[in-house]
Amino acid sequence: MTTPASPxxxxxxxxxxxxxxxxxVAQMDDPDKLRNLMANAxxxxxxKVRDAAFRRLAYVQPEADPDSVEHDIWQxxxxxxxxxxxxxxxxxxLTRTRQKIKRDGxxxxxxxxxxxxxxxxxxxxxxxxxxxxxxxxxxxxxxxxAFDDETRDAARTRLEGAGIDPASLAA
Length: 171
What we know:
Blueprint: H1 11-27, H2 31-44, H3 47-59, H4 69-88, H5 95-104, H6 106-115, H7 121-128, H8 136-142, H9 149-161
């Protein structure tokens, strides 16, 4: 005896399901549950939910107070580490960046990487993956009071060189 196939969802039902999932994502703070939701959304082809869960996952990491420059920096780190995990199938830590933060602090680390004459690997990785808003250069522009003029100018120049409009990333 076979069970009957479940009927296909209508466009309205799919939209309602996706809207409910997006509402849940905004309230979630458990990284494991967010990763599970990302995997399910990916499997179902619901990019909007997957992307929202990805951004929320990077946001809920505990290193700094939300909406601070330090939190923005850690959000960038966690997002890139998650992307690398998904691509490589194993945990990848940005060890050198984490060590520099431990030694010099978040702001000094972001400034140093932004002022380098060549873009960091993280910058290139985030641009390549379509997340220019997660680069330290974008963080610099969103928190102008935390960085000097030279660092902000370097951030704008680097983003423009990558074909990104810096004004689209500033707060």
